[in-house]
Amino acid sequence: MGKSKVLVKVNPEGKYVVDVDKAIDIAKCTPNTRVALRNDSYVLHKILPTKVDPLVSLMKVEKVPDSTYDMIGGLDKQIREIKEVIELPIKHPELFDALGVAQPKGVLLYGPPGTGKTLLARAVAHHTDCTFIRVSGAELVQKYIGEGSRMVRELFVMAREASPSIIFMDEIDSIGSSRMEGGGGDSEVQRTMLELLNQLDGFEPAQNIKVIMATNRIDILDAALLRPGRIDRKIEFPNPTEGVSEPRCRALKSGRGG
């Protein structure tokens, strides 16, 4: 529209071509940016932050607790795998660029409850110094049409603004189960999952956003969610065996100060 004019949509009045205040960097006025106009002259004088649902904002953990790999016993194989998929691309993206290999986007942690899935997700966020965004799949199941999918969109918007970031989606089977013919609440859950698939396809790994999903029921997840390019690695967390219990006990003792 010119060096000092932009097209602004004002609800419910319509669209206007307005002047931009000299103090505003017009390069930041990208499509879908929220702005403020002066009442008298309609001059754009302020760029507003992205509108995010308060429920979504509460999902962001500003400072990740001091969860470390040393606190996790008996999961050396799982720690090595999540380092390869999440930590390595964030800390050394140049390795993937040099090889011409696409960075992984996400990983699925699956296994019985209480086997360390959440603790490992928090630990990798701590070691990568990433913003940790935790959401339960059940929180995205809303009774009003379109609410769940809107929350998913805003979740990824917040992740982009806070990058580098890790989105940890627990109980993903709540919205990611295999699709079946039906209506009512099931249709709304399917809309939410379709929006999640759309968001997974719509961001580039180089944006420093990684997705970690966790479930106790991998057998009921939709095949579309598990395909490469959305979930690039599946890591199993089995119940502890006799040989694994000892290092886990040592980790618990060290966490208590000996």
TrEMBL record:
Q: What SMART domains does its record include?
A: AAA
User: Which keywords does UniProt give here?
Assistant: ATP-binding, Cytoplasm, Nucleotide-binding, Proteasome
Q: Which residues form a coiled coil?
A: none
Region (Disordered) residue spans: 237-258
Query: Record's InterPro entries?
Result: 26S_Proteasome_ATPase, AAA+_ATPase, ATPase_AAA_core, ATPase_AAA_CS, NA-bd_OB-fold, P-loop_NTPase, Prot_ATP_ID_OB_2nd
Pfam families registered for this protein in UniProt: AAA, Prot_ATP_ID_OB_C
Q: Using the record's annotation, list all stretches that form the AAA+ ATPase domain.
A: 103-241
Q: Provide the Gene Ontology terms for cellular component.
A: proteasome complex
Which SUPFAM superfamilies does the protein's record reference?
Answer: P-loop containing nucleoside triphosphate hydrolases
User: Can you provide one Gene Ontology molecular function annotated for this UniProt record?
Assistant: ATP binding
Give me the segments passing through the membrane. Answer: none
Q: Of which family is this protein a member?
A: Belongs to the AAA ATPase family.
| Protein name (record) | Unnamed protein product
